[in-house]
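Journal club prep — side note

Before the paper discussion, L.F. wants everyone to see what a predicted structure for a comparable chain looks like in token form. Sequence:
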Amino acid sequence: MITLEQLERSVPALKGFAARYRAEVQPVLVKHERRLKSGGELFVMGLTLGLPGAVLVKFEHAFPPWTLAPGYVLMFVGFGFLVWGAAEIRASKKSAKVLLVELVCGLLGFTYRLRPSQTYTQWFYKIAVLPAHETYDVEDEVSGAVDGINFTFQEAHLVNTTDGLRRRETATVFRGLIGMIDFHKRFSSTTVVVPRQGTWQRAVGETVPGQRARLESPCFEERYDVFTTDQVEARYLLTPTFMERILALDAFFKGNLQFAFDNGRFLFAADQQSDWMELRGSAQSVVDERYAAYIILDVTLIYHLIDALKLNAKTKA
């Protein structure tokens, strides 16, 4: 796993982060870790009390009649501990994440909001960058500029409900990053690039604006369908060089990338089916330095995107 010092060297703006993290942040994270463990203990206590109570209530005829009332007491008390423990776990993880993300974003000159003041899911859905959904939740907004290129990232969780054989079924249709990045070319049309094979089941012909465009890259057209309201501008935006960059970026996101050009912006959605800037992988503790490294890697993803697509280049490509 990459160390904090290695990350400092790869992102000059983070110089001094490791020392500041260990001196100022890690002692605070220790308190959050204690709260996290306390929540886990409460949760286990809830299971310990609630499960026997639920058994006594569920199979009341197998036990003496006097056990029913204690069974209900154990079940409800256990449920209370479960809710309490789960709330403590969520609160401690969220507080630790906000502390780390605000520090990283502050050093990079970015702005972080746990709850964005504005969401873009409906805009993205209208131009087919996001799948159909009934409910959504958006959090963890990071915005700012890199080399003069303005951007906004948000984490989105979209849920759709369909009619099943016996009941309504709810499923997550998107869980990942959505973003807007300034583009270095002027345009007024809408061009949407849709993966030919993907997990977002949608009727493309009914939702994507414009008409199908034909481009100059067989490899790109094998992976994507392109729809645009202006054929000339689509070719102006999707040059052979830029399409090669998109294919490389698509591989980075393991084939889960959807994007569009609209309103002067480059829009993207990466369906990762996981949360952004959360405990994962080998980091099982908020005190673990690997967790801080994951936060940095997640926040600095914008550098990778802008560099991979050369969005800060003043060239025709």
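L.F.'s comment for the group: Confidence is low (pLDDT under 50) at residues 199-206. Keep this in mind when we get to the figures.
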